[in-house]
């Protein structure tokens, strides 16, 4: 299977993480034992502002931040869109990431939607697939 979508180099990811301030976590759970919550809490502890995106939790706060239904409901710039959704649910999230002017679409470990990656790359975003943002941060920024 040939594709134009590839993960960026460590240098690109390191620079992205160094410059990023705001991470929208799509599919963020309020359950502290879920991977999305653990990753977001880790990132928040390392200075990133976490913006929860989960239509089931609208009106609630997660990690001290109000939860919105979709990326378009956010009213501030987003550097990284971190996706905790099934692979088949990623394409509309990719379109939203482009629409809001995010700098990166990050598909978490186990999530790799190649057409979504190609879509955001062609729009000039960094695209990461099948990698854990917490693991990569710890590996590259320690």
In short:
This protein has 142 residues and is of the alpha/beta class. The protein has helices at residues 10-19, 35-45, 90-99, 114-122, 133-141; strands at residues 22-26, 49-53, 61-62, 65-66, 80-83, 104-107, 126-128.
Furnish the topology, listing elements before pairings.
Layout: H1 10-19, E1 22-26, H2 35-45, E2 49-53, E3 61-62, E4 65-66, E5 80-83, H3 90-99, E6 104-107, H4 114-122, E7 126-128, H5 133-141
Parallel strand pairs: 1-2, 1-5, 5-6, 6-7
Antiparallel strand pairs: 3-4
Could you describe the 3D structure shown?
The protein has 142 residues and is α/β, with parallel strands linked by helices. It has one domain: NAD(P)-binding Rossmann-like Domain (Rossmann fold). The protein contains five helices and seven strands. The chain has helices at 10-19, 35-45, 90-99, 114-122, 133-141; strands spanning 22-26, 49-53, 61-62, 65-66, 80-83, 104-107, 126-128. β6, α4 (114-122) and β7 (126-128) form a beta-alpha-beta unit. α1 crosses α5. The mean pLDDT is 96.
CATH class: Alpha Beta
Structural class: alpha/beta
Average pLDDT metric? 96
CATH homologous superfamily? NAD(P)-binding Rossmann-like Domain
Number of domains in the coordinates? 1
Number of helices: 5
Largest sheet: 5 strands, parallel
Order the strands across the largest sheet as they lie in space.
2-1-5-6-7
**Could you say which overall geometry the principal axes of the C-alpha atoms support?**
globular
Low-confidence stretches: none
Q: Could you tell me how far the N terminus lies from the C terminus, measured between alpha carbons in angstroms?
A: 35 Å
The radius of gyration over CA amounts to 14 Å
CATH topology label? Rossmann fold
Give the ordered list of helices and strands.
HEHEEEEHEHEH
**Strand segment count:** 7
Query: What is the percentage of strand-forming residues?
Result: 15-25%
Helix content: 25-40%
Q: Any idea what the CATH architecture is?
A: 3-Layer(aba) Sandwich
């Amino acid at each position: 299977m040939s594709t134009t979508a590839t993960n960026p180099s460590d240098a690109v990811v390191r620079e992205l993480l160094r410059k990023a301030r705001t991470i929208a976590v799509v599919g963020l759970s309020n359950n502290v034992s879920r991977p999305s919550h653990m990753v977001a809490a880790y990132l928040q502890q390392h200075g990133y502002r976490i913006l929860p995106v989960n239509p089931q939790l609208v009106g609630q706060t997660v990690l001290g931040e109000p939860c919105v239904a979709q990326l378009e409901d956010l009213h501030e710039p987003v550097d990284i869109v971190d996706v905790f959704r099934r692979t088949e649910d990623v394409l509309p999230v990719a379109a939203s990431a482009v629409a809001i002017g995010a700098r990166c679409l990050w598909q978490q470990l186990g999530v790799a939607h190649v057409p979504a990656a190609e879509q955001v790359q062609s729009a000039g975003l960094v695209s990461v697939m099948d990698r854990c943002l917490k693991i990569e941060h710890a590996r590259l920024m320690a």
